[in-house]
UniProtKB/TrEMBL annotation:
It comes from the Archaea. This is C2H2-type domain-containing protein. The lineage of its organism: Archaea, Methanobacteriati, Methanobacteriota, Stenosarchaea group, Halobacteria. Keywords: Membrane, Transmembrane, Transmembrane helix. The chain crosses the membrane at residues 51-71. It comes from Natronococcus amylolyticus DSM 10524.
């Protein structure tokens, strides 16, 4: 069935009539025609919203999947305790690592997404660390970045710091408390601070 448009005298299929009015004569409409077009627009809006929500949920799911399941496999390290890669989790926290006044920039590509259990992301500028496996110790976390860390020693950037050496101090704290990196398992929200200093660094 068709209907003749009163504005342009064109024959339009019944199911396309309202769309024709909206597309070709929106500025001319009045009375019943205006109400028909307005109601048609509201119906489309109501129908579209669930699809938009569904797409948003799907996008979030895909992002989460990529973040959790497509990360590199856990790195084989010399850490005393290895994480459980079969027990997923998702934790975040802060970290500062400084040696002789040099602050490590974890946004450097060499530190981005190097390990499946502990890593930094470039999309958040490495502002927080991410843990995706149960049992990630601070020692393991640093080992995935090519660093060696104990209670009283640090190897980073080709430099070795050991409190057995005169004039050298190594401080490892989490939330302000000293910890043993070999045993301390990272928890959500942890604020890690690792600072190594020498007399030569203090004098420079």
């Amino acid at each position: 069935m068709t209907k003749r448009c009163p504005y342009c005298d064109e024959s339009v299929a019944d199911e396309k009539y309202v769309s024709h009015l909206e597309r070709a004569h929106d500025g001319e409409l009045e009375g019943l025609d205006r109400r028909l077009v307005d109601e048609h627009g509201r119906t489309i809006s109501r129908n579209v919203k669930p699809y938009v929500l569904g797409v948003a949920v799907l996008v979030l799911f895909v992002v989460a999947y990529l973040a959790i399941f497509l990360m590199p496999a856990p790195v084989e390290t010399a850490a005393v305790q290895q994480p459980d890669a079969d027990s997923p989790t998702h934790l975040h926290g802060d970290i500062l690592l400084e040696y002789d006044g040099t602050v490590v920039d974890f946004d450097d590509p060499q530190y981005i997404e190097q390990d499946g259990c502990f890593h930094f992301h470039d999309y958040d500028n490495a502002e927080v660390w991410h843990v995706h496996c149960e049992g990630v110790t601070l020692e393991y976390a640093m080992a995935t970045l090519g660093m060696e860390l104990t209670e009283d020693s640090l190897v980073v950037g080709g430099e070795a710091y050991d409190e057995d050496d005169a004039g050298t101090t190594v401080s490892v704290t989490v939330n302000g408390d000293p910890v043993d990196p070999e045993r301390y398992v990272l928890e959500d929200g942890d604020d890690v601070r690792i600072v190594a200093e020498t007399d030569r660094g203090a004098d420079s």
